[in-house]
Design a protein that fits this description.
135 residues, alpha+beta, Immunoglobulin-like, 19% helix, 44% strand
Amino acid sequence: MARKPAPAPKSPASRPWLEWVVAGLGLAVTVGVLIVLAVSALTPASPPVLTARAVSVTPVGAGFRVEVEVRNSGRQTAAAVEVEGVLTPPAGAPETATATLDYAPGGGVETLNLLFREDPHQGRLDLTVRGWSEP
């Protein structure tokens, strides 16, 4: 009984074009990931740069809730971020509210809420980031 000869391997020229396209996409993704990792590793870390701004005011119970957006434009994370809001009404004494944000990731945005008895729309609201710690 005669044995059948093994089939000859396909030559590179006879590979389907879709195989080349998928291989090229895989190479492009791999090179892209390596470039992003290299740039991230070589870019110097900058300390947290934190800013706070009021996003919305909502009446609640016996007061007003101010939603505050805290933006960290630095590359390092900040932990235990202390935010203070001072509401100065047209008449009367200023009212102060504080809140602590667990963390603000580098390049990220987080929100917190401050509560006031008076309407922030009727006075001047000053928001300040008082401090943070390194995680």
